[in-house]
């Protein structure tokens, strides 16, 4: 049997890989998405803060209409420090915009993008499958795939690593990383509390910064960054005790506050690939760089990667992705 050939193979079917597939689909191009899991991110409690620029990019990809009903606009941002008077405020009205950003559930974002990518013309969704080996040449990238949906070896004119911080494709290409361990973890938990439902808060405390992202009505996502050795102790406090600890850092203006989900934690490390381009391969999103979440720019920058790469490839279609070349 002939080895399958693709114009582009995207490793990773998460939000970044799915967006990449949508950005490249059409024009007779054949795109493969290699995704290790057949499950959706339905149990992921994280929320994503989208910039206005990201919303415009999602509109261009044709998916924002399916996300808008799940998106909570951020109309105000307040930054404060515990134990210090005053606070900094940024208001959408002062900037003459409808919203400073929007918060969407990560699970919903991933599901909408994956559904659209699967339905896009010329996209082959290979799951479960993962990249095992990669052999770049001047004209092709030959990849060995494993998994139930893997056709074995395939080749592509371009490989895109959108498979996250641990990127198997990046490793197969032999690209190293520089890692800075912050010694911190992010504790995430869904909460319900008082206060304005369209204000995002960032409060700096001795235990680490605490962010409160609006989620519609009284729902919020609390993101508490703290030293790693302390995160398990806080996560095990139980709903009422954890809520009280959060209130003690945020202030009583958010009372009453209660948890609405079990807390989860993630270690925080800065990971930067030693290079992001090489012969017939490009790294995007967390495969290229994984940032500290305090600035909430990870996915926003990844979308810019996606659209910048797509613009380059569409502008040089004869060289890179022209069918039959």
Outline the structure in words.
This protein is of the alpha+beta class and 325 residues long. It has two domains: 5-66 and 106-176 and 274-320, 3-Layer(bba) Sandwich (FAD/NAD(P)-binding domain), CATH 3.50.50; 73-103 and 182-268, D-Amino Acid Oxidase, subunit A, domain 2 (D-Amino Acid Oxidase, Chain A, domain 2), CATH 3.30.9. The chain is built from nine helices and 20 strands. Strands 5, 6, 12, 13, 14, 15, 16, 17 and 20 form a nine-stranded mixed β-sheet that branches. Strands 1, 2, 8, 9, 10, 11, 18 and 19 form an eight-stranded mixed β-sheet that branches. The radius of gyration is 21 Å and the shape is elongated.
């Amino acid at each position: 049997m002939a080895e399958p050939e693709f114009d582009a193979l995207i490793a990773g079917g998460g939000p970044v890989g799915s967006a990449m597939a949508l950005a490249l689909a059409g024009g007779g191009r054949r795109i493969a998405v290699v995704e290790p899991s057949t499950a959706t991110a339905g149990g992921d409690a994280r929320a994503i803060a989208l910039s206005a620029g990201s919303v415009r990019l999602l509109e261009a990809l044709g998916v924002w209409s399916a996300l808008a009903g799940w998106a909570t606009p951020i109309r105000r941002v307040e930054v404060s420090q515990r134990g210090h008077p005053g606070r900094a405020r940024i208001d959408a009205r002062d900037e003459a915009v409808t919203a400073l950003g929007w918060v969407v559930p990560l699970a919903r974002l991933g599901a909408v993008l994956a559904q659209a990518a699967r339905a896009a013309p010329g996209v082959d969704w290979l799951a479960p499958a993962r990249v095992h080996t990669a052999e770049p040449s001047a004209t092709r990238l030959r990849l060995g795939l494993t998994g139930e949906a893997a056709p074995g070896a395939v080749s592509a004119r371009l490989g895109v690593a959108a498979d996250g911080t641990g990127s198997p494709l990046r490793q197969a290409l032999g690209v190293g990383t520089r890692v800075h361990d912050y010694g911190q973890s992010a504790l995430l938990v869904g909460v319900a509390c008082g206060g304005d439902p369209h204000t995002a808060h960032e409060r700096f405390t001795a235990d680490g910064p605490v962010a409160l992202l609006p989620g519609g009505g009284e729902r919020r996502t609390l993101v508490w960054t703290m030293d790693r050795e302390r995160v398990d102790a806080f996560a095990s406090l139980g709903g009422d005790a954890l809520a009280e600890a959060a209130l003690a850092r945020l202030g009583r203006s958010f009372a009453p506050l209660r948890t609405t989900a079990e807390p989860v934690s993630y270690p925080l490390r800065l990971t930067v690939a030693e290079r992001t381009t090489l012969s017939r391969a490009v790294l995007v999103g967390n495969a290229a760089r994984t940032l500290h979440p305090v600035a909430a720019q990870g996915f926003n920058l990844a979308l810019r990667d996606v659209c910048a790469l797509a613009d380059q490839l569409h502008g040089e279609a004869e060289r890179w992705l022209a069918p039959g070349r």
